[in-house]
Amino acid sequence: MDAVAPEISWTENDKIVSLSELSGAARYILIFWSSTCSHCLEELPALYQELANYKNTTVVAVGLEDDKIAWELEIKKLPNFKHALALGKWESEYAEVFDVQQTRTYFVLDMEKRFVAKPTDDKEVVIFLREQRKNGKD
User: How distant is the alpha carbon of residue 73 from its chain centre?
Assistant: First the structure.
């Protein structure tokens, strides 16, 4: 899994930001989710709380959406995440490039944005992070 993640861009404070520009974290977590996915709406707040314990982790949450109305409401509940919007849901560029087959899909990247893990759910993300911490990689 040594491949570097494809580029993702989003708007932050009226400025275009991209994944490749991010720095300073030991790892990056990409979450592909949707504001219409009940599992996502259940998992993301719990994961958000847990990730507050991992200061060296930056999260980029990519919303696979048909429109931005519900997405804009939901992202306000997760202010410490970076938020990218992929309109067109399954036909969006990011769903295709990252081969996302379902919401929620997680990827863990190292500091160089290389893929290091693909947890199946929020609990596996936390287990991965705890293992990293135990091995002194936090």
Answer: 17
Q: What is the dihedral of CA 123, 18, 20, 115, to 10 degrees?
A: 30
**Tokens linked to 58:** 């930056």
Residue 115, strand partner residues: 109
- The CATH class of the 25-134 domain is alpha beta
The upper half-sphere exposure of residue 36, i.e. CA atoms within 13 Å in the direction of its Cβ, equals 10
Query: Which residues, listed in sequence order, are joined to residue 105 by a DSSP beta bridge?
Result: 32
**Cβ proximity of 106 and 31 under 8 Å:** yes
pLDDT, one tens digit for every residue, the chain (138 residues):
579 999 999 999 899 999 999 999 999 999 999 999 999 999 999 999 999 999 899 999 999 999 999 999 999 999 999 999 999 999 999 999 999 999 999 999 999 999 999 999 999 999 999 998 888 777
Q: Which pTM does this prediction carry? A: 0.94
Task: Tell me the CA distances in angstroms from 27 to 3, 51, 65, 135, one per residue in order.
Answer: 15, 12, 26, 14
